[in-house]
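FIELD: query
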Amino acid sequence: MMSRVNLPQIIVNACTYMMLLLPTATTAFLTSQTTITTTPNTQGNNCPHHQRCNNWKKHDFDSRSIHKNMKNHQALYALPYDPSENITPDSNKKGGSDNVKDFMGITSRQFSLGYDISLSRYAGSMGFDEVVDWDYFTNPYESENELDRDIVEPPPLDPTKPKRTTKSSGGVVRLFLGELQGALGSQLRAKGLDNRVLVKEFSGDIAADLAKAELKSVAKLQNELCETMKGATSGTWSASGAGRYFFGKANGDTREDDLNLATICEVLAKKSAPFVGIIGTLNLSDFEEDDFFDPNEWYRFMGVSPPKPGSIWVAYEYSGLNTLGNYAVPGEIRRQRMPPRRGPFGVAISPPELPIWKERANYVVKGVLKGSLEALAYLHERGIAHRSIGRSSIIMSCVGMDKSETSSPFATQISRLSIKLSDFGFSGDVYESSNDPSFRSRARGFGLDVKEGTSSVEATNFAFAEDLHALGFVFLAILLTSLAEVPTVDYRLPATTEDNLQRLLGEIFDKDIKQFRDYCIEEDAWTKPVELLDENDGAGWELLQSMCFARERASELRGSFTIVTATGLLSSPFFTGNK
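FIELD: result
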């Protein structure tokens, strides 16, 4: 007799997954995962992707109208800072980061809105969809050990017993673009650095947890960038960061932290780390307590509601807003949709032809895909599991000031491309994965019995495998979209969301990559991508097999000391060209 197991007894394969989907609102679901999707800003030409980043302009927005000038504050504030500890964004808020080493002081540095950072425009909002895959058993109550139960295969075709359910969180994070102001902004410009910043508002308990995880993981990653710099390891940077808001409020003197922060921004820029860096948080207490502030001013300049009380605001280096989610469109369609250029006499000029397909394919494989896998390897080697890999949590940035350059359909120079992972709200220490009940539940779904509070090869393997699995389907989606050869701009490709691809490969073709290849070759627009994957005796298909089914491979390797790593997959002939 088939029965649906109650939630506490069922194997719920759900992990959290964050993606930044701007400007499209395509929802991406990952099998056995909880996914994050975003709701973009759709305010016409104010949408960040309706303008090229080199034409980025700050609105005429007098930040003093919504925030008191810090120099006018005469009251002195005691500095609640112990150099031996790190200060959270707000010690009374759930989103504060745990006490971890934080050489750059991102968890202790607080900026003032207006004096330090001015906001220019609203960029979008983010929320997440909780997608739960259900398993059904023929003998659900005969054993308390889920590994001993018999799963119904195939799943019952019964609408009351869904294979997958989805629950949306709504928007919990808002994004704004801004600039570093004053002496700090001047110092950055003098060094040829970008003074633009991305600011996220995390509102509500769920978002506070996201902010906490993001600060903790990024602080750990950034420590390595400056571990040989005396100012960082001595605690000078974190100490000046902790005092920034209070000294600025008392007498407007933030010179020491300005110098340190300019060095930090230079380190982030020159090290070219494959993640979006954080420089600190915003303290909006004065703004929230300003009795003279008119909320309509915020509406008028930002186009959205004012800050939500109790929110956590985090400031990031500016890496652009172009993601793999934006890039996952056939090149010819993107070319045709480009805004028309005008010649010297106002005559419209058609966009140039795309580079030859081989050049674009080389850019995608050895630049975009390899760069993404290298970024994931960087995280894993430092003990961080992202747990939220998706096409829209991967930023296509640029080594130059025009961050949109590398996401252009004409881009082919790999040396200009800088791939960065973002959205670490669900990330965590690989070796602490067993403390997460949902991780243990997902592992049990693949026959792995991970014990709470333990660190094992099996747990580490599965933590890595979850990220590789997610990235594998991103790779597949990028290959079948950006390199597709469509006959017209109105041509509709088969659905290529992660959810659709997983249903095809995992359910319809029963995880048989060869059958999936035969399906793809029947689509004329995918002929060249399939041929690319066929090269070097199917090296591309082998790579996708290893990544998309990394969790199954982790299950097969239980009891051994073998671990499938992103670093190991970088030696694939698909990237090297050598079999």
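FIELD: remark
Residues 305 and 481 are 36 Å apart (CA to CA).
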